[in-house]
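BUG: 3D viewer hangs when loading the predicted structure for this chain

Environment: internal workstation, default settings.
Expected: structure renders.
Actual: progress bar stalls at 90%.

Input used:
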Amino acid sequence: MATVRSDLLDRIRDLERQVREIAGRSQTRPPLDQIKNGDVRISEGGQLTVAPPDKDFSTFTVGQWPDGSFGMVARRMDGSFALTVEGEAEDRGTVRLWSRDLAERDRILVMDDKHSPRHLGRPWMPLQLHPTADQRTAENAWAYAWVGISPVHNAVAHLAVTSYAEAGGRVRVRMRTKGGEAEVVDEWEVPAGKWTAHTVERPLHRTGFLDDVAIQVEHLSNKRRKTIETRLLSAYTRNTFRATEAPEPPAGREGDTGKPDPTLPVEHDDQGDEADKAERDKTKN
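Structure tokens produced before the viewer hung:
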């Protein structure tokens, strides 16, 4: 009969105890499809995707874009975009909130500015301007027609006015940003005897988000005692349509140009609904 080592039974009993402990712990730990504590890290590329069954799209995707940058897409159950953080390098991580209106799924409701990192892109915000007693004047010296001070939300100011001068006249717009001097940003002639409309679009240079900008619409008549009247049609701020509209940075922030990397492609006019559609088309699934 073979000799059995005296400690063999003890070893077998230890192994049985360890198996029971492992089996017990497996019942108390979370299953492999749950994480109760700790971080999850996906490195060196790749994506985390959540896809509904029997659908050809994902409701949530975060990770690496085909060009090597990173972004995030959240979709609604019908496949339309809800929220995107653009991954393409030229978008610089632009955040966009999309409409859920069935007729306007391509419309962007809220976004930061693609070319000016300090500013809101959408919605466009009003500028407050108020008429003065000289909105209609017969003086041949500069007089204030409309004045106002507004916080800056978007990067570009848009003003539309129309003027009527009996003997002709001139109109100009001056702006003053925080800590600066008032400067003429546009000036034009008003022919005699007819209403003349004019639009001013100007990047709000040297402004940060919620800085104040003062705007003055001034006019004069070419002949004293001949009236000129200027009416405000619209006044608001909007997002940049192209990289060249990015405002200059505020004083003390010369290193922040507010413009995309010059080595990246420069976008051209991307205003309106066609731009929204193009933005959606290039967002990855």
